[in-house]
Amino acid sequence: MADSLFLREFLRAPLRTGAQQPSSRALGAAMAAEIDSNGTDPVVELGPGTGVITRALLDRGIDEHRLVLIELNPSFSDHVQRSFPRATVLTGSAFDMRRLLTTEIGGGIEPRISGVVSGLPLRGRPDALRRRLLQDTLDLARPAAGCFVQFTYWYDSPVPFDRADINGRRTRFVPFNLWPASVWTYRRRTG
User: By its UniProt entry, which SUPFAM superfamilies does this protein fall under (predicted)?
Assistant: First the structure.
């Protein structure tokens, strides 16, 4: 069911969906491994699609109540709401994440988050938009452990970043994914 939903949505809007099939469980696990599972602050997933990475976050030991899933596609949003009923599902643009989190879970105050995992196809987005998404994440994230985790089918960073302020690096490579993928993790430099 989830795979057919993903394919249908890809055929309907290929650039927005970004891939012909969901990420592999191996890629989901590699991304989830970068998130601190011991925290209490929300973990945000951008573009959960059919929930492969969401499931990996749960398998990592992150409580479903901590998950905030932001999905633009209403079909995917409905699917993850049914699949993960204790998670907070917000239908909207990931690029509007800061406002969505402030109004929907922060009660008008910017919430503190543990981090963000993103399955978004970011490469086709303007540099300024990608930089802002990274900055918004790191501004909301707990300074010591908070991070932004993004995968790419390319070797280099999918998000342009200021190396003086942000430690961004390729943390994992997942060959058993269609297509092989690199996981990039970004954290604010401290000290």
Answer: S-adenosyl-L-methionine-dependent methyltransferases (SSF53335)
Strands, sheet with 67-71, edge to edge from the N-terminal-most edge strand: 88-91, 67-71, 43-46, 115-118, 147-152, 181-188, 166-174
Rg of the chain, C-alpha, whole Å:
15
Strand, helix or coil for residue 85: coil
Q: What is the rounded distance in angstroms from the CA atom of residue 144 to the CA atom of residue 159?
A: 21
Compute how many other C-beta atoms are within 10 angstroms of the C-beta atom of residue 8.
11
Residue range 69-78, pLDDT digits in tens: 999 999 999 9
Domains of the chain by residue range: 2-188
Tell me the one-letter amino acid at 32: A
What is d(CA 11, CA 73) in angstroms, rounded to the nearest whole number? Answer: 13
Query: Are the C-beta atoms of residues 35 and 114 closer than 8 Å to each other?
Result: yes
105-134 confidence digits (pLDDT tens): 999 999 999 999 999 989 889 999 999 999
Among the listed residues 104, 40, 27, the one whose alpha carbon sits nearest the alpha carbon of residue 70 = 104
